[in-house]
Amino acid sequence: MHKQLAWDDLRVVLAVSREGSLSGAARRLGVTHSTVFRRLGAIEQNVGVRLFERFRDGYAPTAAGETAAACAVRLEDEVLTLERKLSGQDLRPSGTVRITTTDTLGAVLMRHVAAMRVAHPDIQLEIAISNAMANLTRREADIAIRPTPAPSELLVGRRVADIAHAIYGSHAYLLRRDSKDLAALDWIGLDDALGSTVIARWMHDNVRAPQIACRVDALPALREAAEAGLGVAVLPCYVGDVAAGLRRVTPKTLAEPRSALWLLTHHDLRRTARIRATLDVLAEAFMSERKLFEGRRANSSAARHR
Predict the structure, then answer these.
(1) Whole-model pTM?
(2) Is the pLDDT of residue 303 over 60?
(3) How far is residue 47's CA from residue 4's CA, in Å, rounded to a whole number?
(4) Beta strands 212-216 and 187-190, pairing class
(5) CATH number at residue 125
(6) Are the C-beta atoms of 189 and 214 separated by less than 8 Å?
(7) Sheet of 233-236: strands edge to edge?
(8) Which of 35, 95, 111, 188 has the most crowded CB, counting CB atoms within 10 A?
(9) Residue ranges of the HTH lysR-type domain (predicted)?
């Protein structure tokens, strides 16, 4: 007599289907390779049908496996929706809040974490630094702090500040080059990993490929390359204006690119006490630095060299 499939069984099937291997499924589920092997064998024996074909380079679902995985996806969505809705009924500002943000905004966030802890000591923060947009629908994070012109319609949030950009170079580089002729300068660009960013789009429209001395895959590296004198770079003002080794090529910020700083969460979590409390503190903290984000607080080093 077959036993009923449990949600945990379908999670194993879904993980193997998504990863295509036992080792990948084990990492996704946070268990050992042997555990996935044993559980998958028990599931197949229970349902009386092979769910995956075993190949030398991995696992591929059979027709039955595809059916089971599709069902698991639907159930996963239902479970995650239920979790969000139950979480939304929490009336106490306590518990864990997972925040995801970029490498450059993480530096700004860290200046305010201590105040957050003082305001809400019962909230434990988990901070994930990543330039990839976390999937808030699947609860990879509760709150995302992101620079973007327009967030996804699936999310709700607060627009905290505009993000201005300017062109920056090291003091030594700009002393030996004519900074008034932008076409005569070496430029530092972004590689394909950041090709969709507003900076990359501006570079594509305004800088010829032969002018680009090197490309990097992260904004901190872009700033560091400019500080090292490899050329000039377009940077958000909250990154460039605080770098002691850089100054703006021109005093004014660029008309384009423009972006905005958003605090985002999923619609189902917007009334959760701990999420609302965290968003309130974060909004106040980042709004206190609006001049920096909007390029109205140039660093003293830049001012001295103009």
Answers:
(1) 0.66
(2) no
(3) 9
(4) parallel
(5) 3.40.190.10
(6) yes
(7) 233-236, 165-170, 246-248
(8) 188
(9) 5-62
